[in-house]
Amino acid sequence: MGYELRSFPAESFGASCRMLSGCSRFGKDTFGMSIKPLEELQRADERTLRFLPGGLGLGLKLRPEDAAEYQQEVAGRFTLDERVAEGTRNSYEHLRTVFGYGVLCYEIYTLVGDHALLVIEQALRDRFVDFHGGTVTFVDDTDAEHRVAVAGYDDVHTFLRAHRPPRGRRPWRLRLPTGATMTFRDGTLGDLRVWAREAGLLRGQRNRGIERALAALRNSVAHPSGYQLYGPVEAAQTLHDLAEIINQLWGAPTPGGRLYPAPTRREVVVMAWPADGSERITVTADALVDAVDPDDQPWQCVILRAVFRPGERFADPGLRYFDSRVEVTTYPADVLWGPGTITDAAAWYTQHEPQPDEIDHLDRTFMIRHHAGHLYLPVRPQHAAASPRQERAGTWYAIRADHPNDAYHHVRNIVTAAGCRPRGQCHYCHAETLKFGPHRTVTAGIRAAAALPPDVTTPWAYPRAQRVPV
Ligand SMILES: [Zn+2]
Predict the structure, then answer these.
(1) Same domain as 388, residue 294
(2) Cis bond leading into 463, ω under 30°?
(3) Cα-to-centroid distance, 33 and ligand 1 (Å)
(4) Ligand 1 midpoint to CA 469 (Å)
(5) Which of 107, 152, 320, 470 is most buried, judged by most C-beta within 10 A?
(6) Residue 26 has pLDDT above 50, yes or no
(7) Which residues are bridge partners to 370 per DSSP?
(8) Interval between CA 424 and ligand 1 midpoint (Å)
(9) Residues 337 and 222 grouped into a single domain
(10) CA 137–ligand 1 middle distance (angstroms)
């Protein structure tokens, strides 16, 4: 109707038009909105054309047909796992389809970005119904269980609305498959976000903060108080994050993902440096074949398993500071051989032919010791359990975090009373305290490593302990 309005004679609508405020001029401007002919609606939006594959074009722009192809390719990069529920899948496909039309109308990117935030809630609802297999068990404040048949999430809402706990009584609790219960007040996004964590569907300590932020953004979209305009880059990022969240909810981590990545490949890597530490060479270990030591000065060499992809110009940023007895790298790195000469490394590599593997770097456990005014760098649980008796004194902290620095700064903030919560999930940083106490308490139940790894540090390694103010 709206598109055809312009072709009708103005006088046929004259009477009703004059009755409507905001209708200053029929035809080109109806209800304060400019009516464009079809050919103009089909014309590419100049703003979108400025977004090139390499970034924003300064004085450059894509041809409309190239921009259309490129933006559809961007949306097409993010696919959903086949297990994802049909309703969530359909909503996601709508967003991908509409994203392509941003070439004609730049404002579409804002709508896609906003609506993607709303689809997060739909995905949580659909996954909730899937996860509980048609029956949800609520527990009242007398510990009595109420089994509720659920065909869709509306059934959850209907039950909670019809059975509100009287004022002053405990809210409903939800029974999880583990047998544990969690508070489930009214089934809104806040409950669902906590549920996904409690059910073990979402992971990563840094993601806890991101999930909170996305929920807050979703609420700002549902209850807007201002105006904003996104471009294709922001909309694509939100679409990508949405795909990662949906896939993770259905148990499918994303290869190379930003939020919930699939296990990362570790290569066999050789790192070598001269005795004076004036330079460093890091290459994949296949370069060791036929390698020999230089004549001018002795080099130290180690063979590691670490994240290192020279073809993608990507390497673990902490590799330079490698220390085999503590955790400093972004991804777990293991010493396989060394230190020794390059010639001996080459011989060992040829004989043993170590292979790459894959690791998950989220939600790792780090053990941190605080003793005599010093805070020691994080170590792995099995290494802490195998530590020499003379290195066990003090208070130990078992911390869950995605990066050793997160764990270390969390404990530093605890011992210096700088604000972090000493127990449970920290609200101030990306870490969770699992246990703390003497060595025997914190390492109870942990299988000690048969032996500590060979003691290897690069010339650039950090001191293993730092004095902290009491
Ligand atoms: Zn903290």
Answers:
(1) no
(2) no
(3) 51
(4) 17
(5) 320
(6) no
(7) 375, 395
(8) 10
(9) no
(10) 34
Q: Are residues 211 and 348 in the same domain?
A: no
Long-range contacts from 1-8, C-beta under 8 angstroms, 24+ separation:
2/35, 3/38, 3/41, 5/30, 5/35, 6/35, 6/37
Q: Same structural domain for residues 109 and 153?
A: yes
In degrees, rounded to 5, the angle at the alpha carbon of residue 70 between the alpha carbons of residues 65 and 76 is 130
How many domains would you assign to the chain?
4
DSSP 8-state code for residue 260: S
> What is the CA(192)–ligand 1 centre distance, in A?
24
Confidence band, pLDDT 50/70/90 cuts, at residue 20: very low
CA of 148 to the centre of ligand 1 (A): 38
* Distance between Cα 195 and ligand 1 center (Å): 22
Same domain, 383 and 395: yes
| Distance from the alpha carbon of residue 258 to the mean position of ligand 1, in angstroms | 22
- The CA 85 to ligand 1 mean position distance, Å, reads 36
Same domain, residue pair 87 and 180:
yes
CA of 433 to the centre of ligand 1 (A): 8
- Distance from residue 88's CA to the centre of ligand 1 (Å): 34
C-alpha 422 – ligand 1 centre gap (Å): 8
Quick: pLDDT tens for 187-229. Answer: 999 999 999 999 999 999 999 989 988 888 888 777 777 777 8
Distances (CA, A) of 338 to 71, 271, 345, 378: 49, 10, 7, 22
Q: Which of 359, 387, 404 is the last residue of a domain?
A: 359
Alpha-carbon gap, residue 290 to 243, rounded angstroms: 46
Count H helices, E strands: the chain? Answer: 14, 21
- If asked whether residues 14 and 138 sit together in one domain, one would say no
Domain that holds residue 341: 264-359
Cα 344 to averaged position of ligand 1 atoms, centre (Å): 44
How far does the centroid of ligand 1 lie from the alpha carbon of residue 242, in Å? 27
Cα distance between residue 13 and residue 11, in whole Å = 5
Confidence of residue 30 (pLDDT cuts 50, 70, 90): low
Q: What pLDDT digit, counting tens, does each position of 61-115 carry?
A: 888 898 889 888 988 888 899 999 999 999 999 999 999 999 999 999 999 988 9
| Threshold 0.90, pTM exceeds | no
The answer on 245 and 203 residing in a single domain is: yes
Q: At what angle do helices 108-131 and 153-162 cross, to 10 degrees?
A: 70
Query: Cα 345 to chain center, whole Å?
Result: 37
Q: How far is the CA of 301 from the centre of ligand 1 (A)?
A: 37
Tell me how far the alpha carbon of residue 430 lies from the centroid of ligand 1, in angstroms. 6
Which amino acid is present at 167?
Answer: R
DSSP 139-186: E-TTS-EEEEE-SSHHHHHHHHHHTPPPTTSPPPEEE-TTS-EEE-SS
Q: Of 337, 359, 381, at which residue does a domain stop?
A: 359
